[in-house]
Specification:
It contains 6 helices and 7 strands, in the order H-E-H-E-E-H-E-E-H-E-E-H-H. It has about 190 residues and is of the alpha+beta class. The protein has a 5-stranded mixed barrel with strand order 1-3-2-4-5, surrounded by 4 helices. A two-stranded antiparallel ribbon has the order 6-7. The longest helix is centred in the last third of the chain and has 16 residues. It binds succinic acid. The site of succinic acid has 9 residues, from helix 2 and strand 3. Succinic acid binds next to helix 2 and strand 3. Keywords: Lyase. This is glutathione-specific gamma-glutamylcyclotransferase. It is an enzyme of class 4 (lyase). Its EC number is 4.3.2.7.
Length: about 190
């Protein structure tokens, strides 16, 4: 099932077209930054871990056969590394469309690589959203990703692009890397 969060997000934090705000990216927003930004900085947020537990009915799958993309799960004591972008309210609007399938904007504290901090937004898809798929054995998640396909392309491309971008940034992510290894492994078999 899907939930279109566009309107909800615009009611959550109002950002004027010319105002700027930090946005923390941890998934496709790391490797597909095809939007204008004023500044981009490595950053992390505390208490969250990346997981391929969110369904994608509109990008990497279809309503009948959703793909799997990342969301964050609460994980006290850990940090999630990613990329922060300072963007205008004008840029946030198309991103609300891109992230409309269950992601709600949350306000969080970003820590940059020099240790400085600022408030920013993050798109979070919680287990309450109808597109949430949740946990499954890694082999099952990998097989699911390997077969899913949607209007934005193959689900495996999303996974491998994210794994590649994280490796390039020197970010260790055992969950993403284990899935990428399994999907690559299936390549060798097919
Ligand atoms: C993000 O990248 O921060 C949100 C999830 C996604 O678009 O993959």
């Amino acid at each position: 099932m899907q939930l279109d969060t566009r309107t909800l997000n615009q009611q959550r934090q109002r950002v004027g077209d010319d105002e700027s705000v930090w946005l923390f990216g941890y998934g496709s927003l790391i490797w597909k930054a095809d939007f204008p930004y004023l500044e981009r900085r490595r950053a992390f947020i505390r208490g969250w871990e990346r997981r391929f537990w969110q369904g994608s009915h509109d990008h990497r799958g279809t309503p009948e056969a959703p793909g799997r993309v990342v969301t964050l799960i609460a994980s006290p004591g850990t940090v999630c590394h990613g990329m922060a972008y300072r963007i205008t309210g004008e840029t946030l609007k198309p991103l609300d469309i891109r992230e409309k399938n269950g992601y709600l904007r949350e306000l969080t504290t970003l820590t940059f690589d020099d240790g400085s901090q600022d408030e920013g937004l993050v798109y979070l898809a919680t287990e309450e959203n109808p597109a949430y798929l949740g946990d499954a054995p890694l082999d099952a998640i990998a097989a699911h990703i390997d077969r899913a396909h949607g209007p934005s392309g193959a689900n495996r491309e999303y996974l491998l692009n994210l794994a590649g971008a994280l490796r390039k940034l020197g970010i260790d992510d055992p969950h993403t890397f284990a899935l990428a290894d399994r999907v690559k492994g299936q390549d060798a078999i097919n």
